[in-house]
Give the backbone structure.
Amino acid sequence: MLLNTRGTTWRQLPEAERDAIRDAASAKALMLAHPALIKRPVLAAPDGTLLVGFKEPVYHAFIQEKS
């Protein structure tokens, strides 16, 4: 999931706007309106596998596995 619901931008949104996220299309519209809601980093491996967000042990394992 690319939508970061743990950051300050999410917490500062009105509750009605947060509750309006029902599907991928509504999440996409919200992320386009508020780019800070997109989790970072997004890593893409040559095989197309994606890793979203940063947790150091997972990040390092992903890089080791996919390189």
About this structure: The longest strand covers residues 42-44. The radius of gyration is 14 Å.
